[in-house]
Specification:
Elements lengths: L2 H6 L2 E2 L14 H18 L3 H6 L8 H14 L6 E10 L5 E12 L2 E4 L9 E6 L2 E4 L4 E2 L1
Antiparallel strand pairs: 1-7, 2-3, 3-4, 3-5, 5-6
């Protein structure tokens, strides 16, 4: 189990966030980094609407998936976790697909942990639809 999953209480299988196109500052890398920032912000703010907006249209009932993930996080006492996404490791980037993993830290009551266990990294699958990057995997296991 990665540190991200232990800290967030959420198994992230292909998660990413934010509807940023690749044409802005930082291009695709910047847009993908913003997706991860928004993903973790959704958990910090308990914002299921934001989380749902990050999932691709292929996710059936994204609102319900996001709401359950947020509620699971809150029920595990993770309301006070803070996340700092400092970068993103991207592999297999094409014009419309990518795999990525966030870089940065999470903080719980003053203790800091890496977002991802480097010994067992799990890359999120992303797709670009109409110029916007979205999470391609809809599974948020909790």
């Amino acid at each position: 189990m990665t540190m991200l999953m232990r800290t967030a209480g959420v198994t992230v299988l292909g998660l990413a966030v934010v509807a940023c196109g690749g044409g802005g500052p930082g291009g695709d890398e910047g847009a993908i980094k913003n997706i991860f920032r928004d993903f973790f912000r959704a958990f910090e703010d308990a914002d299921a609407s934001l989380l749902a907006s990050l999932l691709s249209d292929d996710c059936e009932d994204a609102d319900s998936i996001a709401e359950r993930a947020i509620q699971s996080s809150l029920s595990r006492g993770l309301a006070d976790v803070e996340y700092d996404v400092t970068g993103v490791d991207i592999r297999d980037l094409t014009e419309t697909t990518a795999e990525a993993i966030p870089q940065g830290t999470s903080s719980v009551e003053g203790d800091e942990f890496p977002l991802v266990d480097s010994a067992d990294p799990e890359y999120a699958r992303l797709i670009k639809i109409d110029g916007e990057w979205k999470l391609a995997d809809c599974n948020i296991l909790f």
